[in-house]
Amino acid sequence: MKSLRIYLFIIFSFFFVSCQVHADSSIDTFKGIWSSIKSFPLFKVSFWKGIGQGFGAPPTGYVYSFMVHNDTDQTIWIATQNLASVMGGVFPVASGWDCDMVSPYTVHGQDYKEYYFELFIKTTPKSYSNHMPYLQHDDVLYQTEKINLIPGDKNSQHRNHFRVYMGKDFSNGSYKHSLKSEYIGYENIVASPKDENAISISSNLPSLTIKNSTDQDYYIGFTTQNPSSIKISLCQMVGLLEHNSFGLLSVTGSIQSLRPGLIGIFKDLESPAILTMKIPGHGFDNFSYTLEIYQDVGQQNISCQWQGITPGHYDVAVNRVKDITPIIGCLWYQSVAQLKGKNLIDLPGTVWVVSIEKNSKVGKILGAVQPGQVLTFNIERPKLVDKKEIYFLYVNQADTTKVQSFLNRFLSGEIGSDVIKKYQENLSSVIPDSALQLNPLALSKEAAASSNKADFSQALINQIVAGSFDLSRGQIVDSLTDVTGFLLGYDIFLPLGIGAGPFYYVLYPSYTANQQTPLPISAIENLFVTAPKGMPSSLAINTYAPTAYAMS
């Protein structure tokens, strides 16, 4: 302003000096001088318009596009304050304040807004009486004093993206959570030219991380539905997330993306969810999304919110990590008609799939299958300090009560321990001991793959194919229930693996050669992640409850 006063003083000094010089001349001469003065730029309308453009209006063609993503369950506000630029300074325009509400899990923005203006991301809708944009206010998550003009940004086609998330600060020995904002990057409003530095937005979300920062274990459920209250029975995926640990959740089966979806937090498998969390319908590609379950000091209940996605704004998953995505298993018990082989027979019994967590001694029946059927079942990875073993048992018994008792006694370790020991010896002959250590983060991809694939030694496979398999090695006799079963297969899973499957298993029909009474002399073949030829691909393999499917 001082420079403006000096400039005007020089102009008017020139005017008065000119009048003084011509005072001694005639009136006609003075009139001629006055005509010249009227033509001076100071007295032309174009001069004052130029002053207005130079002092307050933006240069032509300079715009700024932005979009704010509210990834929280709280309402936020986006405000802009129009500014006038006068001789290097910026001043708020009295009528230039605008404020818009952004509901939870929605977005708001504006394309091609002309310079100059101040951008605010706020937790309240209040405006400021002083309208001084460069003063900090407690309700502001993000603000810029002035959006700078860059020569290369003229007619810019960049849309700048911001995101609001739940951050935290460490104070007095503990964390306190509060809303924060982050700048993600820019996308190109037009498709071309290709810009490798631009970000992209889509509805695809292949995986996410969940951190349980509490001292309580919780079950995590996922559903693509949007019910008013979520229960375990509605979830396509359920996994146990232990206290003070990370859980990895990935797409599986027919679920190609976790968007849109709903996360439920459960205390147990019977009660309704104590918390639900909506997964935003759109997000940024190639960024890691992390949900955090936490309970701040003085907070009565737990909370669940999204963390940031740019570096430094989220917790890094190290050490205590578990894959909570259920592993899909498919067991195809082929019939003679399907295999079309010679000297084969369909046995009258049933193959049961059961699992045991070794350290916690938790057993579970996963399902049953008969010749000509495919059984799909979910395998939940064990706790962080445990490992889970899967067993395939053949039982020919019509009395369901006896079968249930036989399976329970096997799971409790009362029967079958000698047979299990023999299978574990076969497993150790083809898999190095280091691959089974409970330190999955140290495994190479190849070693992790081997630890999931429990094959027999080649000599044992040759015995099976030749029909000379020693039946006593797989036979389990329970004198209490008078039931005899056969262990036909074995596999092992660690807390963290290389994916959610599906893993395919095949059991071929039994040979009848040299057998007066047909007995199972085949063994389960684990084909790992390759579907066997001839098995239908349209199985509902993301069903939580195990189901048997008849084969045509």
Global outline: elongated
The average pLDDT score comes to 78
Rounded to an integer in angstroms, the radius of gyration calculated over CA atoms is 36 Å
Termini Cα gap: 89 Å
The low-pLDDT segments are 1-55, 430-458, 460-471
Structural class comes to: alpha+beta
Biggest sheet: strand arrangement = 18-17-10-13-19
Classify the beta-strand content into a percent band. 35-45%
Number of strands: 31
What labels would you give this structure?
5-stranded mixed β-sheet; 552 residues; single chain; disordered N terminus; alpha+beta
Protein model, in words:
A hairpin with an 8-residue loop joins strand 17 and strand 18. The longest helix is centred in the first third of the chain and has 20 residues. Helix content is 16%, strand content 36%. The strands form eight sheets. It has a five-stranded mixed β-sheet, with no helix packed on it. The chain starts with a helix and ends with a strand. The N terminus is likely disordered. By secondary structure, it is α+β, with helices and mostly antiparallel strands. It contains eight helices and 31 strands.
Quick summary of this structure?
With about 550 residues, the protein is an alpha+beta fold. It is about 15% helix and about 35% strand. The radius of gyration is 36 Å and the shape is elongated.
